[in-house]
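User: Need the bound-state model for uridine-diphosphate-N-acetylglucosamine:
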Amino acid sequence: MKLKVYGNQKVNGVVPISGAKNSALPLLAASILSVNGLKLTNVPLLADIETTLSLLESLGVAYRVDQESLYANTVELKTGSIYNFTAPYETVKKMRASILVLGPLLTRFGRCRVSLPGGCSIGVRPIDLHLKGLEALGAKIELKDGYVHAVAPKGLKGANFDFPIATVTGTENIMMAAALADGTTVLRNAAREPEIVDLANCLNAMGAKISGQGTSVVMIKGVSSLRNTTEYRVMPDRIEAGTYAIAAGITKGRVDLIGGNFRELLPTFIEKMERIGLEFSDIENGLRAESSGEIAPVDVSSDPYPGFPTDLQAQTTALLCLADGESTVTENIYENRFMHAAELMRMGANITISGDKACVKGVEQLTGAPMMATDLRASFSLILAALAAKGDSVVDRIYHLDRGYCCVKEKLASCGVTVDRIS
Ligand code: UD1
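Assistant: Bound-state model below.
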């Protein structure tokens, strides 16, 4: 499947922001911990959600999906009949976040087998810290046949663990494992992303005792089971909101992002975008992003929250391709996250990559071209550039896009922009 993007369009309208993929995935995995089930609302319509649901189903989780609105589903999960403890290679290779079932299965059932994820297009992305954290809680872990085999026949025990690098899914995995461990766990240098706060809040509603979420020290007092029947609403997707704000910036238009407190969720991003030339104003239940007409060059470095999100780096690079001067983009999280640069250069962008830095010299005009999406966020960066370009573009391999952006054609249409799926 490909996406045809017509050039020289202006974004002008309203975009309802979906539930966050990076929150919904751990929340779905957290259902494994519950005795009486979990009901999630505001679950986005995404391929990664379907992959997670089929993984959970293969473990024995029963679920029901109901359409809640145009862009959201309600998912009810029952976990009384889990009989399988393996996340197979075929699933993990499609979606690395499958690793999130490791902590919950191990702590509730004493065993789990998860395929090692291997590399991906944006870098090596090891899971060593997930494993070290679980070992600190007493798990016995063996790597063989491409799989992580983890057991804890007598359950896990609370412990102190310092993450040498803050990892988002690593923090989530250990937090879920510690929720049912015997005793108290203290995680230091924990990741502070809002999605971790969302997971901890849901776990607490289920009956866990977690404090400090959103800071770098998280304390988890283990409980014997999570029994509360819980309904929980997935937080809004700050990366989707940021992406549509950039769409307004690059097309010199305006967009109303509805459904969350995006100033709080994207502090550094908003500050940078204001320096580039976007203007933000508060509106009911959201934020308006409007181009001032300028695209000023800035230096941007991706960092863990509350820093500039790596998941908005590719889209920002696309915007800076049309800036009035030279910018430097530094990628501090992943070692290979500039694959989109080569595609943008095929549209006439002037980008030089050197290690973890991209020097982006703004050009007057990009021109439409056939392009290839290389990863999830990179795929939208190509669409953004194509919307502002002279002439039409075709973006190939948009299965990357469908993994993590909900209803792109419809949402772009709701702000006055046309794209077409072609096979
Ligand atoms: C999550 C997000 C992803 C985002 C990333 C960084 C989900 C489902 N995905 O990915 O969209 O880009 O956070 O904000 O939430 N690392 C290790 N060892 C480990 C784990 C991580 O060295 O065991 C390194 C990674 O290679 C990377 C850094 O730590 O350089 C941060 O990665 P991490 O926060 O773990 O990313 P994910 O949780 O996979």
